[in-house]
Every structure is written in C-alpha cells, then in structure tokens.
Amino acid sequence: MIWRALPSYERGYDPLREFDRLQREVNRLFNGVHSQPYEFPEVNVWANEDEAMVRAEVPGVDPADLNLTVTGKTLVLEGKRGATEAGDNEAYHRQERGMGNFVRTVRLPFEIESDQIEARTTNGVLTVRLPRKEETKPRKISIQSE
Amino acid sequence: MSKEEVQVQKKQVHEPDVVTEEESRTVYRPATDILARENGFMVTADMPGVDRKHVEVNVEDNTLTIRGVATLDEPEGTNLIYREFEPGVYERSFTLPAEIDVESIKAELKHGVLKVNLPRAPEAQPRRIEVVSQE
C-alpha cells in the first residue's frame, strides 16, 4: 500500500536496498581504517601446465633471513626484516616501513616437485619457480578409431 | 639553478633520462623511514625491483627527490593466477632543513632499499664549549 502511494517515477526506489548500500559503504570505510591494508609480502602468482611461479616484494630482507617451505599445494614464505632501533640521541621522525617477522602462505594450483624448486632474489624481489609434480600433469590420451 | 646530481654508490648516474622513459606506469610513494640522528638524517625508502641504473637522487634548493623505476620482466607463456603488486615507478620528495650539508649527501641501494644519508653541516653540529675556570 505504501508502494502504491509513491509517485510512479519513484516506484523503482527500494528504501531497504538503500540501507543495504549505506551499510556496505560504512563497512568499507571502517575496514580501511582499522585493518592492515595488505599482508606482507605482497605476492603475484602465475601458472601454466608445467610450473607455477610466485613473485614477492621483499625489500630490505636479507636472502639468508628468508625461509621457503612447500607442503603439498602450499608454499610458506617466512622471514624477517631487520629492525633498526633508534639509538641514543636518535629518533624516528617518520616510520612507515614495517619491521620484524613475517609469514605468508600461498596456495598453489597443483602439487610441486619439491627438489626442483628454484628461488632467487633480485633487488628485493623474490622469484620462486615451482615445477609441477610429474604425476599430476595432464596426460594426453590418444583415441583409437576403427 | 641547475639540478644537482647526487652520486649513488660512488657511481655517477650517467643517463638521468633513463628514469623518465617509463612515464606510463603507476607512480607510487615509497614507504619511507626518516631517522633523525645527532649528525644528520637517514632516509630509508622501499623500492623493490629497482637497481642502481634506474634510481635517481636529486637535491634542488631545499628539496630532496628520490625516484626509482622497477625493472623486472613479467613472465611470459604463463597465466596470471592473482596479482597483488604491480612494478612501477617510486617517487617521493622531502623538504630538507637548512642545516644539511648537500655536498656530503650519500646514497646507497641494497636489496631494493634506498638509504640516503644526509649529514648536518659541521657548523650546525652541536659543539661542546669548554668552560674554563678563572681561578
């Protein structure tokens, strides 16, 4: 009955949907303020039929402080970024770079041949090549016809 | 007044223009720490994927500008599953206090982190004044 009372051009307007939208907007605003914007390190993942490749931005991390482990379809990247504590007579005017330990889990699309993994860091970017486990590769099946 | 080129790692950046050729990429403000010390400042900025040939540290008037271009080829012949970062250009400017000794600014780049050391001019350093007793 209320609906019919609205002028015709407003009938498409659903006040409940508006509330929904408002709620979502407010949620988004709050989420941006409280939480960490992203996990460290940020990763990009590529894959084709034969291998997966993971790239992570890890500036300031000594390769000796990086640990990579692969279990099944999961790659775990952990390490630490050296903390430079301010000494006596020193003070941080600005501190934006995170420091300390980090752990990041990356899910891969297939199982990996663990002993063939290659990892390398260049200018603070880690690139990991993960060849696919041979048994899980798609097999081409030839079709016999009479 | 001409732009003053600051040496990076004791090697002159010969072609400053190589940093500007990638204008179509996203420009990021690198996360930076600024540490104030007794003898000056240390500016540390994250620039992953940037190598020495693609970084530039300039001082003009009282402004320090750091800029770096990340150069890592995206892999080919493979599909992107998901992406969280995109290599781009890092750029940020800072206003320096007057007491910085511009001639002695030193910069180094390691593991994708640019560290710029900005020493205070010697006259501006706190000097201990000896108190002599008259007796």
Question: How would you concisely characterize the structure shown here?
Answer:
The complex is a heterodimer of chains A (146) and B (135). Chain A is an alpha+beta fold and 146 residues long.
Record keyword descriptors for this entry:
heterodimer, A: 146 residues, alpha+beta, B: 135 residues, five-stranded mixed β-sheet, four-stranded antiparallel β-sheet, disordered N terminus
Can you lay out the helices and strands and say which pair or pack?
The complex is a heterodimer of chains A (146) and B (135).
Chain A: H1 2-5, H2 15-34, E1 43-47, E2 51-57, E3 66-71, E4 74-81, E5 91-95, E6 100-107, E7 118-122, E8 125-131
Antiparallel strand pairs in A: 1-2, 2-8, 3-4, 4-6, 7-8
Chain B: E1 4-5, E2 27-28, E3 32-37, E4 40-46, E5 50-60, E6 63-70, E7 79-83, E8 89-95, E9 106-110, E10 113-119
Parallel strand pairs in B: 2-8
Antiparallel strand pairs in B: 1-5, 3-4, 4-10, 5-6, 6-8, 9-10
Structure commentary:
Chain A has helices at 2-5, 15-34; strands at residues 43-47, 51-57, 66-71, 74-81, 91-95, 100-107, 118-122, 125-131. With 146 residues, chain A is of the alpha+beta class. A 4-stranded antiparallel β-sheet of chain A has the order 1-2-8-7, with no helix packed on it. Chain A has a 3-stranded antiparallel β-sheet with strand order 3-4-6, with no helix packed on it. Chain B is mainly β. In chain B, 0% of the residues lie in helices and 44% in strands. Chain B has strands at residues 4-5, 27-28, 32-37, 40-46, 50-60, 63-70, 79-83, 89-95, 106-110, 113-119. In chain B, the strands form 2 sheets. Chain B has a 5-stranded mixed β-sheet with strand order 1-5-6-8-2, with no helix packed on it. A 4-stranded antiparallel β-sheet of chain B has the order 3-4-10-9, with no helix packed on it. In chain B, strand 3 and strand 4 form a beta hairpin. The N and C termini of chain B lie far apart (54 Å). Residues 1-21 of chain B have low confidence and may be disordered. Classes of the chains: A alpha+beta (146), B mainly beta (135).
